[in-house]
Design brief:
alpha+beta, 40% helix, Nuclear Transport Factor 2, Chain: A
Length: 158
């Protein structure tokens, strides 16, 4: 498979992924993940590493959506994408994400790396590493006090 075809497939995958987040469609987001997901998160104080099954990962997606609602995320955009195809079925992708609020004001940016596996025609995320949590917390600190936001912050810490 040509490298340009793989890159186009990865772009299409992340466009779908991003659209699901913008719609806050948890089931659609979950469909982008494999049955087991390895996640490494820089929390700002340390690195959290875990492997999640579909039930656990769905709870995580719900927490992320609650975090995004607390800061009024209106859009997400992949401002940078780099891919490294190990094979037509196994790709690593690095993205720079930019989040804006519903008034199109920038909130924050973060970096994430993904391992994508294609068992059928569709990729699924099998592993990811990101540095979003410190950026989210800095953004949250700039927001006016709101009980819903404080609940989301406690959720992000877990």
């Amino acid at each position: 498979m040509r490298s340009s075809k793989i890159t186009a497939d990865v772009r299409a995958f992340f466009t779908s992924y991003c659209t699901a987040f913008i719609r806050q469609d948890a089931p659609a987001i979950a469909k982008h993940f494999a049955d087991s997901v390895h996640v490494a998160s820089d929390t700002g104080a340390d690195v959290s590493v875990r492997v999640a099954n579909p039930v656990e990962w769905r709870k995580t997606i719900d927490r992320i959506l609650a975090m995004y609602r607390a800061i009024d995320v209106g859009s997400l955009e992949a401002t940078g994408l780099a891919t490294d195809a190990l094979s037509p079925r196994l790709v690593q992708a690095r993205l720079r994400w930019a989040l804006s609020d519903r008034a199109a004001r920038p909130l924050y940016e973060f970096d994430a790396m993904y391992t994508l596996a294609r068992h059928t025609e569709t990729f699924r995320i099998t592993a990811m590493a990101h540095n979003e949590i410190p950026e989210y917390r800095r953004c949250l600190e700039r927001q006016p006090r709101d009980p819903q936001r404080e609940d989301a912050d406690r959720t992000a810490a877990t």
